[in-house]
Design a protein that fits this description.
Helix 3 packs parallel to helix 5 and helix 6 (138-157) packs across helix 7 (176-188). This protein is α/β, with parallel strands linked by helices. It is built from nine helices and seven strands. It is globular, with a radius of gyration of 20 Å. It has a seven-stranded parallel beta sheet with strand order 3-2-1-4-5-6-7, sandwiched between helices. Strand 6 (221-224), helix 9 and strand 7 form a beta-alpha-beta unit.
Length: 243
């Protein structure tokens, strides 16, 4: 290979790499100044707390994607949703659930029917493969994670290219990881402008969950419910207990 040809190829590669890095810096939340919230944060009323946290989804004609985990995760998310149900009718709502989670479906339908007072056609339920089963071995967990990524790509990315959400709201189940990272990759390539809002589980008092640690770098808003977490981790916001 001639020296000039080699120089041109290397230069193009370096420019491409530099452009990729600059794009990452432009969109990645972890590259921006963090909000480190401590005891001085106001607690206020529930209405004020949720007005601040969810203000970006109040406007009409926006799509929000909400992940319901299972068990305690679903219970906490439903209690969170109940506190901003006044906004629900203004949003196109996509609920994501793990396969086999019939209990969460029942809780969701009860919430929509009794609290939001909506009809089944007013929202969408998307089922993806569960990322991790409780007590599963490492090999089984790895297989399920790969299947979860594949299921997420097909049902949330490939089939919904014109229906990306403005907000992805989650509170900690492992299924959030493939969804959040695939949406972030789509944002990187300019396919969407989805904001990722993560609310850490009430059970996490002194340290973040594994899901929280993995999503923290790419989340636009990361909210914790205990002050020690806000003091320990950069970019965490604290508004008191939310559920």
């Amino acid at each position: 290979m001639e020296e000039i040809t080699f120089t041109v190829i290397v230069s193009i590669l370096l420019v491409a790499i530099l452009g990729g890095i600059l794009r990452l810096v432009q969109i990645a939340p972890f590259c921006k100044a963090g909000k480190h919230v401590g005891s001085e944060t106001r607690n206020g009323t529930d209405g004020k707390k949720y007005e601040d946290i969810l203000s970006s989804i109040e406007p009409k004609n926006k799509r929000i994607m909400i992940l319901l985990g299972s068990g305690g995760h679903t219970g906490e998310m439903i209690r969170i949703l109940e506190q901003w149900s006044i906004y629900a009718g203004k949003l196109d709502r996509d609920y994501v659930l793990s396969s086999g989670d019939d209990t969460s479906i029942l809780k969701l339908k009860k919430f929509e029917e009794e609290v939001v007072k909506s009809n089944p056609e007013d929202y969408t339920i998307i089922t993806v493969h569960r990322a991790r089963d409780i007590g599963a071995g490492k090999v089984n967990a790895l297989i399920n994670t790969l299947l979860s990524f594949a299921s997420t790509f097909y049902k949330i990315i490939a089939m919904r290219l014109n229906k990306f959400p403005k907000i992805f709201l989650t509170n900690g189940p492992g299924t959030a990881i493939p969804i959040a990272y695939m949406l972030f990759i789509c944002k990187y390539f300019g396919l969407c402008d989805t904001k990722i809002i993560y609310i850490e589980s009430l059970a996490r008092v002194n340290k973040l969950s594994l899901t929280g640690l993995l999503i923290l770098p790419i989340s636009d808003r990361f909210i914790v419910q205990w002050e020690p977490l806000a003091r320990k981790y950069r970019r965490c916001e604290y508004y008191g207990i939310l559920v």
